[in-house]
Amino acid sequence: MRYTKDWKDYELIDCSDGEKLERWGDIILVRPDPQVIWKTPKTNPLWKKASAYYRRSKTGGGAWDVRGKMPPFWSIKYKDLTFNIKTMGFKHTGLFPEQAVNWDYTRELIRNAGRPVKVLNLFAYTGGASIAALSENAHVVHVDASKGMTQWAKENAVSSDLQDRSVRWIVDDCIKFVQREIRRGNKYDIIIMDPPSYGRGPGGEVWKLEDEVYNFVELCSELLYEDSLMMLINSYTTGLSASVMEYILGAVVKKKFGGSVESSEIGLPVTETGMILPCGASAIWKKTGEK
After folding, report:
1. What angle do CA 160, 165, 171 make, to 5 degrees?
2. What pLDDT does 290 receive?
3. How far is CA 165 from the centre of its chain?
4. How does pLDDT run across 144-162, given as a tens digit for each residue?
5. CA-based, 20 to 30 A from 119: which of 41, 180, 191, 278?
6. DSSP of the chain, one letter per residue?
7. Residue 195: its pLDDT value, please?
8. What's the pLDDT at 206?
């Protein structure tokens, strides 16, 4: 499993019985997590002192139960990057801290490329990968169907003092955008995608990951140069394992361009127990040894 130990402003303090205890800067949150099926003792006193708890409803959904001082939003840093955080519906905070291991991987690849790098970030959410790529002076195209998430990503760029870097912020359905880029003849050195399990585009387009991912990878492969650097797929869908994504990249991208493919779970270290909490999976195609 891949993970980073470099977080200072975020900490997964403990997790047990379907919940995780987290520190986001100075704010302590308790959120549900379906992966946490073990029932270790909740001895850390912060379990009872959190600023907010996300409580699931028996009828679906849930809501935040705020107990302490809670700002409407606040910021945390990862290395030289700054992200704006707030409690949202469906237990989210606007950032997936386990993705930092992929940000680091992407940054190193850009840094060592020895040439200008164009990055396409699809289903880009609040822009963690976009901000990471901008920090290395890549030209970034950030695409997400949500206007609100794209605005949040712009604010993260400002907070990281990267607002003047080369970036296009696109609110669009990712499939339609890729199809247009193919017709335009545009190409990218790095393609990153973090597709949802299920969703709808701005025009009501339905996306179901298991039905779409293979064809979408085929489509995206048309946006790669012969000497492109990487395609990275991340998934939080239980039915789409790291190995399955690796096989897809191997069957489509490696077959077409050569290189290598790897995959693994990504996770977060748990301070209290020393365990690593699985948080998703990533597969990476890389044009090994070529610039």
Report:
1. 90
2. 43
3. 21
4. 999 999 999 999 999 999 9
5. 278
6. -B--S--SSEEEEEEETTEEEEEETTEEEEEE-TT---------GGGGT-SEEEEE-TTS-EEEEE-S---S-EEEEETTEEEEE---GGG--S--GGGHHHHHHHHHHHHTSSS--EEEEES-TT-HHHHHHHTTT-EEEEEES-HHHHHHHHHHHHHTT-TTSSEEEEES-HHHHHHHHHHHT--BSEEEE---SEEE-TT--EEEHHHHHHHHHHHHHTTB-TT--EEEEEE--TTS-HHHHHHHHIIIIIHHH--EEEEEEEEEEBTTT--EEEEEEEEEEE-TT--
7. 87
8. 66
Residue 194 CB contacts under 8 Å (≥ 6 apart), including other chains: 99, 122, 123, 124, 125, 129, 233, 234, 235
Amino acid symbol at 283: A
pLDDT, tens digit (0-9, with 9 covering 90-100), for 15-74: 999 999 999 999 999 999 999 999 999 999 999 999 999 998 877 788 999 998 889 999
Contact predicate 231/224, CB 8 Å: yes
Asked if 49 contacts 23 with a C-beta cutoff of 8 angstroms, the reply is no
Crossing angle between the packed helical segments 242-249 and 209-221, to the nearest 10 degrees: 30
Within 8 A by CB and 6+ apart from 169, the residues are 142, 150, 153, 154
**Count of other CB atoms within 10 angstroms of residue 86:** 15
* Residue ranges in the chain whose pLDDT is less than 70: 198-203, 205-208, 210, 289-291
* Identity of the residue numbered 4: T
